[in-house]
Amino acid sequence: MKRILASLLAGLLLTTTLSAQAKYLGDTVKIGVMNDQNGLYADLQGPGSVEAVRMAAEDFGGKIDNHRIEVLVGDHQNKPDVGTAIARRWFDAEHVGAIVDLPQSAVALGVAGIAHDLNRVALISASNLDSLVGENCSPNQVQWAFNNYALASSTANAVAGPNADTWFLVVVDLATGHDLQSILTRMVQAKGGKVVGAVRHPLGTLDFSSYLLSAQASGAKVIAFANATSDFVNAMKQAAEYSIGSDGTQKMVGITVFEPDIVSLGLKVAQGTLITMPFYWDLNDQTRAFSKRFAARFGGKVPTVFQAAAYSAALHYFKAVQATGGDADGARVVQQMKKIPVDDPVFGKGTVRADGLNMHPMYLFRVKKPEESKSKWDLYKLVKTIPPEQAFQPIKDSKCPYLNAMTSN
């Protein structure tokens, strides 16, 4: 009888151990960083996001429940088919629990769909497509830095007024550009303003002269650029050549502009440009301390908002995996991410909403004049803090098909 009881007890202990192990996908907790490693967007995410996620893993202690954290790197080359192929290999063959970053909207949509189908996690920290927390939401994904609604509403609310009641939009001819144009137009109109004209240009445009002359001729008090990286840089350089905005009659507003863009432009050209973002390296003591550590590891460069968001999203994911007791059930991990408060040195305190949107303040910055800057990366001056409830779309207006189910959880 004693032998039988001992055998039963040993079997029970073995079953319990196997059950606990089954909550993890493998011996290590794997997170993949997928982005553009060498192309147009590499300065915004690229190797910098990989370094940021490695920092998050180290700051968490390097392991979760004795499972070492491993960071994988994938270059989607801004091609949806390449991104989805990497995601399937990582999820199916390499037991990756989550993929973070995901710039390029089509890639983000594709990878998020696979994460949902396989019950893994998509940490979308670098795509601002609104539908990711709207009609294309799922219980297996979050959107971390911002979306087009937040950019457009924050910019319109902070800039629009009697002295900025007419707008002209210069928009990149991509899905995210169209999305941003539509939302910004609605926001400007809601503030009593009017969009008097808009032009769309192909990605990678070199000659903006016709677009800029149309903007100048419109007489609009605000010229808003809904483009990024080299497109924004080229447009601004050519605007300076035509002296557009130099007399103060037309404000220049950048909707999706980042530190490398301003450094490339130079403060002489970029000065006075208004920018809305949720993160800036010199925002407060916490962001400065984090950025100093990042720069020491990354050739002296300060983190962009997307690199900071990759850190923040990964760190919160690790907390949720630990609280859940494993990474095998992606939907359960995301549910836990919504339960525990966000608190880190880059975004500060916040919450993940039921639809997967990370709620945090947005900030309106003005690019400094050359004489105001003390160093290469001393670029912005804070103009206004925008609370999350004003920056982001109300959840009552959400088109997320899973919202009722996720709210009940």
Question: How would you sum up this structure in a few lines?
Answer:
The protein is an alpha/beta fold and 409 residues long.
Note the main attributes of this structure.
six-stranded mixed beta sheet, 2 domains, 409 residues, Rossmann fold, alpha/beta, 15 helices, seven-stranded mixed beta sheet
Could you please describe the fold and organization of this structure?
The strands form three sheets. Strands 8-7-9-10-11-15-16 form a seven-stranded mixed sheet, with helices on both faces. A six-stranded mixed sheet has the order 2-3-1-4-5-6, sandwiched between helices. Strands 12-13-14 form a three-stranded antiparallel sheet. The N terminus is likely disordered. The protein folds into two domains: 203 residues, Rossmann fold, CATH 3.40.50; 160 residues, 3-Layer(aba) Sandwich (Rossmann fold). The protein has 15 helices and 16 strands. The chain starts with a helix and ends with a helix. With 409 residues, the chain is of the alpha/beta class.
